[in-house]
Amino acid sequence: MDHTIGNPASWVARHVIATFSHFGVMIRTIGGDKEESKPIIRTLTMGDLRDALAQGYDDFKTFRSDVITVCTLYPIIGVCLAFMAFQGSLFHLVVPLISGFALLGPVASVGMYEMSRRREAGEETNWFAIFEVIRSPGIGAIVVLAVICFAIFAAWLGLAHVIYLLTIGTWPPESIGSFLADVFGTGAGWTMMIVGTAVGFVFALLVLMTVIVSFPLLLERNVGVVTAVMTSVRVVIANPVTTMAWGLIVAVSLVIGSLPLLLGLSVVLPILGHATWYLYRKAVV
């Protein structure tokens, strides 16, 4: 029997129904599967951090050409954002924009988690596996968690702007030269840097507690947003020293990767992304 496409109206109707059905599945995964058991967490050691980084680097070597090709987009986006900030006399937001990679890094690394998961499971893996994330059991919750991370990033930028106005207060900055002179040559500038660094630390800690294992957990199990976030919080509370050490490793790595025009991020982000998957494996039973 011959297969026909049918009339255009029926074709559109079928695809609209399929699309709404897919959105319905995504919405249902936000709350998670009620039959899923509560994740059990383990105690982490510094050796676990070293092992996770070593395994992450091994995955990076395996997928090097794939992930570098994909992750080159991140420094390009960062440079474009910095350029637009300079063009719009938003010099004071360049550093918050760049440091925002620490807040958005977990979202950008979801594809790396999926590649490591597939390699660990012995499945065929290449950079196309990044798009397989949409098939994960908790895709709806992943989308919601990503939106939360972007909201935190937006709040950080807004607060950084407020701190600038309350300290230096010159809006817009007259030039990059006068801005740098105000920052490094005045008490108000030093106050801005100290307060901004302290506030940035709070935002980084918030993201660390929210997503240290939540994205990998949602890739593997449909536990819902609340359970995933609470599991991350429990991991941090149960392992304060090791998780703070992990946050420091991530922060220092991102700074090093950002120095040569952000190009190093195309290497740093995938290594950290792969390593985070193995940290999740060590942190959650």
Automatic annotation (TrEMBL):
> Does this UniProt record's set of keywords contain Membrane?
yes
Q: What is the name of this protein?
A: DUF2189 domain-containing protein
The answer to whether UniProt assigns keyword Transmembrane to this entry is: yes
What is the protein's species of origin? Paracoccus methylarcula
Keywords assigned by UniProt? Membrane, Transmembrane, Transmembrane helix
InterPro entries per record: DUF2189 (IPR018692)
Signal peptide coordinates = none
Membrane-spanning residues = 67-87, 93-113, 139-168, 188-219, 231-256, 262-280
